[in-house]
């Protein structure tokens, strides 16, 4: 990883390594179980598993950007956004990522990409309308820290297994049943075991990614506050964004909610799951942490 001036976080690194180890082990076990259960369809299982993994790793940034409606913009098209990214990259001593804008009233931002060389940072038009320049820089510093810490790539790979559990199971069932043929006892067992294995894999991967996601958001807040030296600006942005989220139409929130793990702040709709399963820590936790950092910087 190219060194930057973002404060390193050993806790985040440890959690990322641990999550990737467990996810990788789970991935191997999952594919192994499918091969054992679908003996006649194992080439199809391996082919689909490998193809999906490669596609997710190499094209995840484009998939995420497309899903969130991001389009790359030039400095002439978005001078305020590019200017803020330029200043922060110079301050952090890191390569400038691609800059994108999403035409959405949901005030938010996200970063994606496998590494610093192909990273993309995106803000919504709703965010630019609502924030002051120093608040915008706080949000963008938060997103750039995700790129510097490489937790975007880890989250992308970690969340992949949940997707794989559903897709491979459907294709494996279809291919396996066609090869096995008939409605014998083996088919009945497969119909019970494969969805069960898929459900267990999905639940474990979901919980692991949620735990990592909540910690990485706190880590990004800390890194951004220390880099800019203005934790109060980031706190003000958080308060604005979270408060304005309640005024966004439910339809818009539901469109953004599937990408919560990537957003600066979660787009919760009325029927969201409990905070325990949230991809982000609570606003109170984030503000309390920023308040402690402000005190530390003031003493320094």
Automatic annotation (TrEMBL):
GO molecular function annotation: metalloendopeptidase activity; zinc ion binding
Domain Peptidase M48: 76-291
Any Gene Ontology biological process: proteolysis
Keywords per UniProt: Cell membrane, Hydrolase, Membrane, Metal-binding, Metalloprotease, Protease, Transmembrane, Transmembrane helix, Zinc
Record's bilayer topology term: Multi-pass membrane protein
Subcellular location: Cell membrane
Transmembrane segments: 12-35, 41-59, 152-177, 189-212
UniProt cross-references to Pfam families, sorted A to Z: Peptidase_M48
Cofactor entry: Zn(2+)
Top enzyme category: hydrolase
Residues the record lists as binding Zn(2+): 142, 146, 217
Family to which this protein belongs: Belongs to the peptidase M48B family.
Protein name: Protease HtpX homolog
Higher taxonomy: Bacteria, Bacillati, Actinomycetota, Actinomycetes, Kitasatosporales
Gene name in the database record: htpX1
């Amino acid at each position: 990883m190219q060194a930057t001036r973002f404060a390193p976080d050993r806790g985040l690194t440890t959690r990322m390594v641990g999550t990737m180890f467990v996810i990788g082990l789970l991935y191997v076990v999952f594919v192994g179980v499918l091969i054992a259960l679908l003996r006649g369809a194992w080439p199809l299982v391996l082919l689909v598993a490998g193809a999906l993994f490669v596609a997710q790793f190499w094209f995840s940034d484009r998939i995420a950007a497309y899903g969130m409606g991001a389009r790359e913009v030039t400095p002439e098209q978005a001078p305020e956004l590019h200017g803020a990214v330029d200043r922060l990259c110079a301050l952090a001593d890191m390569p400038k990522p691609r800059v994108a804008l999403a035409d959405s009233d949901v005030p938010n931002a996200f970063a994606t990409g496998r590494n610093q060389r192909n990273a993309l940072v995106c803000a919504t038009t709703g965010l630019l309308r609502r924030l002051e320049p120093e608040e915008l820089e706080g949000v963008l510093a938060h997103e750039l820290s995700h790129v510097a810490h490489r937790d975007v790539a880890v989250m992308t790979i970690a969340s992949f297994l949940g997707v794989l559990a559903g897709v491979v199971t459907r294709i494996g069932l279809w291919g396996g049943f066609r090869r096995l043929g008939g409605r014998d006892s083996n088919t009945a067992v497969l119909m019970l075991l494969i969805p069960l294995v898929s459900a267990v894999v999905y639940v474990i991967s979901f919980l692991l990614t949620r735990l990592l996601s909540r910690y990485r958001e706190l880590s990004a807040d800390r890194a951004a506050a220390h880099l800019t030296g203005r934790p109060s600006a980031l706190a003000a942005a958080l308060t604005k964004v979270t408060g304005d989220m309640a005024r966004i139409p439910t339809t818009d929130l539901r469109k953004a909610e599937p990408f919560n793990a990537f957003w600066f702040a979660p787009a919760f709709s009325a029927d969201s799951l409990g905070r325990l399963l949230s991809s982000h820590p609570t606003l109170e936790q984030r503000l309390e942490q920023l308040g402690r950092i402000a005190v530390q910087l003031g003493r320094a």
